[in-house]
Design brief:
The complex is a heterotrimer of chains A (448), B (428) and C (393).
Chain A lengths: L1 E8 L4 E7 L4 E7 L5 H28 L1 H5 L1 H31 L8 H24 L9 H20 L3 H17 L6 H15 L5 H16 L3 E8 L16 H12 L5 E5 L4 E6 L5 E6 L8 H11 L6 H6 L12 H13 L4 H23 L6 E4 L6 H15 L4 E2 L7 H17 L9
Parallel strand pairs in A: 1-4, 5-8, 8-9
Antiparallel strand pairs in A: 1-2, 2-3, 5-6, 6-7
Helix pairs in contact in A: 1-8, 3-4, 3-6, 3-7, 4-5, 5-6, 7-8, 9-15, 10-12, 13-14
Chain B lengths: L8 H18 L1 H4 L2 E4 L7 H6 L2 E4 L1 H10 L3 H10 L8 H11 L15 E6 L4 H13 L3 E5 L10 H23 L5 H23 L12 H11 L6 H20 L4 E2 L2 E2 L5 E6 L7 H9 L3 E6 L19 H11 L6 H14 L4 E7 L3 H4 L2 H12 L3 E6 L9 H26 L1
Parallel strand pairs in B: 1-2, 1-3, 3-4, 7-8, 7-9, 9-10
Antiparallel strand pairs in B: 5-6
Helix pairs in contact in B: 1-10, 1-11, 4-6, 5-6, 8-13, 9-10, 9-11, 12-17, 14-16
Chain C lengths: L1 H19 L5 H9 L5 E4 L6 H6 L3 E4 L11 H5 L7 H10 L8 E5 L3 H13 L4 E5 L7 H21 L7 H27 L6 H9 L6 H17 L8 E6 L8 H9 L2 E5 L19 H12 L15 H9 L4 E7 L3 H17 L3 E6 L7 H19 L1
Parallel strand pairs in C: 1-2, 1-3, 3-4, 5-6, 5-7, 7-8
Helix pairs in contact in C: 1-9, 1-10, 7-12, 8-10, 9-11, 11-15
The chains are: A alpha/beta (448), B alpha/beta (428), C alpha/beta (393).
Chain lengths: 448, 428, 393
């Protein structure tokens, strides 16, 4: 099959979207690897291709065992098992890296004891993994570092005490090893892990009809073997210039967000994207063509990074900020969206005895106020209005935006896709498809 | 500019002129020549020349320092001496340079001023700048107040006010400093030379109406304005330089050639842009490269009008020496109000058949920058084209974020491209 | 006696504060209802010829920004982050219709931001009068004076063209008299604060003065008289505070909480440059002769040295030192709005002057909507303590 890929190299995450030649979204992937762009790009692409092959698996299964192919729970369970196999594969790599790190000169003091303790910790984490994945781990946070790191932090303290090894040593050892893992372009592909995943799934589900097991094995083999021809690719995002792509395969994120948002919601006329480093206000026409845009000024004030900074200041995970703000009873007025001053203002407010929830609600409003100004600069908020980027997943920010838009512009249809974070990559993939078709001089079936 | 690249004779001539002036300044004291510090907008070069006084332009020194990579050090010095991080970096760069030995762009020391001639035109900060210089140099100081065209026109009262100041304040001060009598005939002669050069100067910038444009009217334009905006207006050297430049530009038009860039001739004109606002000087060539690599040429710019707006027909006039100097001062670009500036930009977009316009907004310069976003909206409404907005600074390298600037510029050019394709698709 | 006086005082201050911070400009709207057909003309800091506006039967209205009372959206759409806050809040007020009651706006020359705001206003409100008032930088009555007089004459024509009454000798006399009187009362307020700062806290004096932005001179004068009478009647005990002058806050206004913070930190503010409009010119405008020339020449001869005006003679900062001496101040607080070119560019020269005069000083920045003062409180507290230590030594 012929596919095109769009890659969005953002400041905090890298996203990839794979489209079939009919324009259908086949797969998408995301990674938070900060090690280097090549690896990030490879991981996101491989994730997207895995999703693509899962789609092929389902199609193949539909021919062999239609009932099984319609069973979402079954397929989700297989996906979880696949993630588990990938996870175990990564643990194996981590194990060798940990050993290498522990053998380094710095760690000589502890010698074998450190080796043993680290290996023991990893044994525990490995043993816990199947249960954790069965319970849905790996789906909430999709990143290996986060999953393993969280457990390591919990287990390292008692283990270190028992082995008389400082907690800091164990953490530092882990940090060094995980960076090395992230810097390696690992083979996490469908082709490698689908087989073992199906075998484990069949083993662990004795109630599975024998015919379905056979059908699964055959479908997985077929999906793994299917030739996926990468017809074209387009890169976008903050770090797009670092992609090893040809010049015409690079598009600004403005165009990609405009087109992606248009394809998600064809009625879109105004797009707001709040990403990690950038906020963009974009106006598009009925074809998804950008008519004007504005980006935030030099500083990253009021961007996603600001929320990350606030989360660090409050010592909570960034995902917890939205829910926290939603519990506010009133919104405290915050004047500074400058990341440097916001911390001071935050501490000041808290010192004055104001509730955390109320202060955080105020911070969300402050961010959205900045975005409102940018929207005004770009030409206002027209109907329909589509909100994209990482911050679009934050319910408190969405609520503040909804309110301010209605106060300033009246009723507007506000669209937020569940795949919102992929908008840029989706747009890039659409450009890749459009360009490939133009080059092949065939009419574009998805063009409106 | 890269030395291996072909240079036209006018480029070498321009470099010689400017370099020669700095060398002359370095030897001014021993040669018994007087110097006056003054500013580009509303400069009274002809009047100074009539008294054999050499002009020194602090904002030119600041931008030269930036192009030589010295501005960060000078700004740091000024901030250490108590200047706020919030204020104009031209001032800080100049002040830091002064406090570091006042070594000019050619590596030689600039003379202390015999006169501080504050041509207070189009920029409030000039006033503060010269209060600061006066405290440092204790030199005689003259303030020439050039009223702002707040309601969109230079009135007779404004002109009379400036002429009266010239006659009763500026000229007596020059007479006192130089010990020479004011010679109006000599001034007339100098003004006649100004007018000659101004004709060719206007023709050079007008040539950008051709397709392809033979010049870049912003990055390249900066070099073209050099002589006429600084020490050479009213000299035969300037007359010769602009004649030579005009001939070269005409030849490029005849050959259908595009502008020369520091990296060689620009191969293909893909986008025609109008630019408002001064350039960034610390990354001047990098900034230019971002344009010409994309095939973007600037066909008109407002920055090349800060030292005088000539395209509407104004010329220095030997028949009305002081009146025409006053009109010159009143007419400088930053002395125009915002609606007039927006009108001019919109007119450029139409007259030069531009694909779009870009505002380069610098942190330092409130005179240019405050209100530019409103200008942006107004020009968008007038031309029906979306504008681009890019921010950095004049001479503080901390405020030039290359990747941000490039991202915005590329996004803008791609938008133009996409709109063109969209238009073509619709036409089919 | 003191009990009811204290209550009356509290009530008056409350009323003044409501007037001073009313972003709906209700007092102006009410005045216009009482004066059908009359114009209300806004002006931004620092100075405008209020007597001229009043002589045309119009109400001069000081527009000094939205402070922390307005949420900024449209203002930020018009201004980059490196421009001070005042124009954002003024634009926000304008675009939200809060300034609809004004028939025009004057933008006196003070800096390029305000100068350009005059053009922004023309673009955003094409149907309203927007006029840049270029104050002379040449102080010779025959040069700068002639130009200034012509400027003022033009302003009269602009107002008349908008439907204002052409001034008559009687209306000139009345307007000039009323504004001279208002200037005396404002000066009396500051004099009393210099002499007995414990009686006149700046956080009170400020709102009483600021109420004058939206009131006709006579009404404001009445308010000032009442306030002066009440503070003289209410017993207030002096504290062992440091006497300071605040400099640099002449355009974008400091938040009221900032003033309270400074007072709580142990400072008596005995001199400042807030709300200069009624006291910028330090002499009466004479009633005799051509009123336009009278305003122009009084300005030329008696406008106070200021960052927005070319320092014609002497050294920058001398006037500040003189002001501090006159006020018996023990130190100077440089309080400049962020990105305020006039204040920030003057500051190093003024600091040097303070240094030469042996006047302790410190500096900080604020913006009209600053919300946190912890740092300033600690800085000012330390400064006040240090001053008292020095003066005790």
């Amino acid at each position: 099959m012929r596919t095109v890929i769009g890659i969005d190299l953002g400041s905090t995450t890298t996203k990839a979207v794979v489209l079939g030649e009919d324009g259908r979204m086949l797969g998408r992937g995301i990674t938070n690897t900060r090690s280097n762009y090549d690896v990030a790009c490879a991981i996101a692409r491989s994730e997207a291709l895995i999703a693509t092959r899962f789609a092929l698996l389902r199609e193949a299964l539909a021919r062999r065992a239609p009932d099984a192919a319609r069973d979402d729970a079954l397929l989700q369970s297989i996906a979880r098992t696949f993630r588990l196999e990938q996870h175990l594969g990564q643990i194996a790599v981590l194990r060798t890296e940990l050993a290498a790190v522990a053998s380094g000169a710095t760690w000589h003091t502890y010698g074998e004891a450190l080796h043993a303790c680290a290996a023991g910790l990893l044994d525990r984490i490995e043993a816990e993994a199947p249960a954790a994945f069965a319970g849905g781990a790996g789906l909430g946070s999709e990143f290996f570092r986060d999953l393993v790191g969280a457990r390591w932090r919990v287990l390292a303290e008692p283990a270190g005490k028992a082995a008389d090894i400082g907690f800091d040593w164990l953490m530092s050892c882990f940090d060094k090893a995980i960076v090395r893992v992230e810097n390696r372009a690992l083979d996490l592909s469908f082709e490698r892990f689908a087989g073992p995943a199906i075998e484990r799934f069949v083993r662990e589900n004795p109630a599975l009809a024998p015919g379905n097991a056979t059908a699964l094995r055959a479908s997985a083999t077929e999906a793994a073997a299917a030739a996926i021809d990468e017809w074209n690719q387009v890169g976008t995002g903050y770090g797009r210039s670092k992609l090893p792509f040809r010049r015409e395969q690079i598009r600004s994120e403005i165009l990609c967000h405009g087109l992606g948002a248009h394809r998600f919601f064809p009625g879109t006329r105004t797009v707001l994207d709040i990403g990690g480093q950038d906020t963009k206000a974009i106006q598009v026409d009925d074809q998804g063509i950008v008519t004007s845009f504005q980006m935030n000024d030099r500083c990253a004030a009021g961007c996603g990074r600001y929320l990350g900074y606030i989360a660090d200041e409050m010592n909570v995970a960034v995902q917890e900020l939205g829910p926290m703000a939603s519990r506010a009873t009133r919104s405290v007025k915050i004047n500074s969206t400058c990341t440097v001053f916001a911390g001071a203002e935050l501490r000041d407010r808290l010192a004055l005895g104001q509730k955390r929830e109320d202060v955080v609600a105020g911070l969300h409003r402050a961010i959205v106020l900045r975005a409102m100004s940018l929207l005004a600069r770009s030409g206002g908020v027209k109907d329909e209005f589509t909100f994209t980027g990482g911050v679009a997943r934050n319910q408190a920010a969405v609520a503040a935006l909804r309110q301010l838009v209605s106060e300033n512009y009246g009723a507007r249809q506000l669209n937020i896709s569940v795949d919102s974070i992929y908008t840029g990559a989706y747009g890039a993939a659409l450009f890749a498809l459009r360009d490939a078709r133009a080059a092949a001089a065939t009419p574009d079936p998805v063009a409106a | 500019m890269n030395d291996s690249i072909h240079k036209e004779p006018s480029m070498l001539r321009q470099k010689e002129l400017i370099g020669g002036h700095y060398r002359k300044l370095a030897r001014a004291k021993e040669a018994g020549l007087k110097s006056a510090y003054t500013f580009v907008p509303g400069n009274l070069t002809e009047l100074l020349l009539a008294f054999d006084v050499l002009p020194v332009l602090p904002e030119i020194n600041a931008l030269q320092s930036a192009m030589r990579g010295k501005s960060a050090e000078y700004i740091a010095k000024a901030e250490k001496l108590g200047q706020s991080e919030d204020v104009c970096t031209y001032v800080k760069c100049d002040y830091g340079m002064m406090k570091s030995g006042n070594v000019g762009p050619t590596g030689e020391r600039l003379p202390d001023p015999d006169l501080l001639l504050l041509s207070y035109t189009g920029c409030f900060t000039f006033l503060k700048w010269f209060e600061l210089l006066r405290e440092e140099y204790k030199a005689p100081t003259v303030m020439l107040h050039v009223p702002y065209q707040g309601d969109g026109a230079a009135t007779r009262e404004m002109r009379d006010y400036v002429v009266k100041q010239l006659r009763r304040v500026v000229i007596p001060a020059l007479e006192k400093v130089t010990g020479k009598r004011y010679d109006e005939d000599r001034l007339r002669h100098i003004l006649a030379l100004s007018a000659q050069a101004e004709e060719d100067f206007v023709a050079v910038f007008r040539a950008a109406r051709n397709r392809p444009s033979p010049i870049d009217a912003y990055f390249g334009g900066v070099y073209y304005i050099g002589p006429i905006f600084t020490a050479f207006r009213g000299t035969q050297a300037a007359v010769d330089y602009y004649r030579m430049l005009r001939a070269e530009v005409d030849a490029r038009v005849a050959a259908g050639a595009g502008p020369l860039t520091p990296d060689g001739p620009m191969p293909r004109e893909k986008y025609r842009l109008v630019v408002e606002g001064p350039p960034n000087w610390t990354s001047f060539h990098e900034f230019w490269r971002m344009f010409h690599e994309e095939g973007a040429v600037v066909v008109a710019s407002t920055y090349t009008k800060v030292g005088g707006v000539y395209e509407d027909g104004f010329r220095h006039d030997p028949a009305r020496p002081l009146e025409s100097l006053a009109e010159y001062c009143l007419g400088c670009y930053t002395n125009h109000n915002l609606p007039a500036r927006a009108d001019r930009i919109a007119r450029y977009v139409q007259d030069y058949e531009a694909d779009g316009f870009l505002i380069h907004s610098v942190k330092s310069c409130d005179s240019f920058s405050a209100g530019q976003l409103v200008i942006l909206r107004d020009v968008e409404q007038k031309t029906g084209r979306a504008g681009a907005f890019i921010e950095s600074d004049l001479v503080d390298p901390r405020y030039f974020a290359a990747s941000n600037v490039k991202n915005r510029l590329e996004s803008y050019l791609q938008m133009i491209d996409q709109q063109r394709r969209g238009a073509t698709a619709c036409a089919r | 006696m003191s009990q009811p006086a204290a209550a009356a005082l509290a009530q008056l201050v409350e009323r003044a504060e409501a007037l001073a911070y009313d972003v709906e400009y209700s007092a102006v709207r009410a005045w216009k209802e009482r004066h059908p057909g009359a114009l209300a003309i806004g002006f931004v800091p620092v100075w405008a010829p209020r007597e001229l506006i009043a002589a045309c039967g119009a109400l001069p209205v000081g527009v000094v920004g939205g402070g922390d009372k307005v949420e900024i959206i449209k203002g930020d759409a018009c201004y980059q982050s490196y421009v001070c806050h005042l124009p954002r809040s003024v634009v926000e007020l304008g675009l939200n219709g809060r300034l609809d009651c004004l028939d025009g706006m004057l933008f006196p020359s003070i800096c390029d931001v305000i100068r350009n705001l005059s053009g922004v206003w023309k673009l955003l409100f094409p149907n309203k009068l927007s006029h840049y008032l270029d104050l002379p930088q040449d102080f010779d009555p025959e040069i700068g004076g002639d130009f200034f007089r012509a400027e003022l004459a033009q302003l009269v024509e602009l107002l008349v063209a908008r439907g204002a009454r052409r001034p008559t000798p009687a209306s000139w006399r009345q307007a000039i008299t009323e504004h001279n009187e208002n200037r005396h009362l404002v000066e009396e307020l500051h004099a009393l604060r210099r002499e007995q700062p414990w009686r006149v806290p700046t956080s009170e004096a400020y709102v009483v003065a600021r109420a004058g932005c939206v009131l006709p001179a006579t009404e404001h004068s009445a308010l000032l008289r009442d306030y002066l009478a009440l503070v003289r009647a209410v017993p207030r005990a002096p504290l062992d505070n440091a006497r300071v002058v605040v400099a640099g806050a002449f355009c974008e206004q400091p938040p009221l909480d900032l003033l309270k913070t400074l007072e709580r930190a142990g400072c008596y503010i005995v001199g400042d440059d807030f709300l200069l409009a009624p006291r910028f010119v330090r002499a009466d405008v004479p009633l005799e002769g051509d009123p336009l020339a009278a305003i122009a020449n009084t300005w030329l001869a008696h406008a106070q040295p200021h960052a927005s005006v070319w320092t014609r003679a002497g050294t920058k900062g001398d006037d500040l030192v003189a002001l501090a001496r006159k006020a018996g101040a023990e130190g100077v607080l440089f309080a400049a709005p962020s990105f305020c070119d006039p204040a920030l560019l003057d500051q190093p020269m003024q600091e040097a002057a303070c240094g030469r005069a042996g006047l302790p000083h410190m500096h900080f920045k604020y913006s009209e909507n600053s919300g946190q003062f912890q740092g300033i409180r600690e800085q000012a507290g330390t400064f006040a303590d240090a001053i008292k230590l020095w003066s005790g030594a």
